[in-house]
Inverse folding.
């Protein structure tokens, strides 16, 4: 999956993955990570997610990374912020009200970029990637985050042959395979959520579960 795929989806406003409401799993399970109120929370492939507003309301500093400039601009505009903008070699940074978004490629991030991070919220990043990219993503994530960082990871699991991703199906077994060398893995919950997602029923899914993990990097 090339960068142009996501850039074109934002350009064509094909953003059915975006949600106006806060994610219920985030609200229910965030405290399991025991994050300090003033900690820096990293949100990979953040889009214009309003979940960043919820994290800020909890007192956290929020750091997102997003490929699409359209998504970054939309986040600040739709939420009434006028961000400060700084242009860098690899990333352009927009910041306002304790929320910073780096506009650029996740895989260009290094340790210095995430040195202050102590928690991660991954609702849709891993599931947005096809199988051939997920191992690279997990390895890079673990390699650039500080030790002991905790990750709230939310995945969807459904019969992959019934629907073309994204979001892609990621099983609990694959999460174990991807992260077992890097982190302690704790499955917090597994819920049948097909009934709450009619758009996925319309796309032909016969079942869907959302799995919520807490990962603690070694």
């Amino acid at each position: 999956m090339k960068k142009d795929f996501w850039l074109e989806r934002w350009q064509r406003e094909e953003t059915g993955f975006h949600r106006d409401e806060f994610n219920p799993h985030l609200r229910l399970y965030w405290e399991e990570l025991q994050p300090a109120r003033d900690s820096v929370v990293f949100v990979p492939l953040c889009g214009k997610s309003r979940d960043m507003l919820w994290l800020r309301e909890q007192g956290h500093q929020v750091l997102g990374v997003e490929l699409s400039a359209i998504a970054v601009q939309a986040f600040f505009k739709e939420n009434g912020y006028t961000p400060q903008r700084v242009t860098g070699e690899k990333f352009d940074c927009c910041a306002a009200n304790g929320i910073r978004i780096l506009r650029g490629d996740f895989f260009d991030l290094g340790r210095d970029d995430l040195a202050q991070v102590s928690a991660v919220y991954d609702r849709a990043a891993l599931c947005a990637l096809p199988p051939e990219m997920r191992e690279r993503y997990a390895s890079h994530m673990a390699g650039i985050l500080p030790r002991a960082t905790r990750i709230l990871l939310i995945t969807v699991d459904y019969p992959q042959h019934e629907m073309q991703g994204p979001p892609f199906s990621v099983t609990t077994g694959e999460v174990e395979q991807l992260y077992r060398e890097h982190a302690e893995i704790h499955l917090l919950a597994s819920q049948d959520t097909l009934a709450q997602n009619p758009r996925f029923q319309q796309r032909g899914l016969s079942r869907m579960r959302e799995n919520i993990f807490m990962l603690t990097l070694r």
User: Anything to note?
Assistant: The helical segments are 3-11, 24-29, 51-57, 69-78, 131-144, 172-179, 198-202.
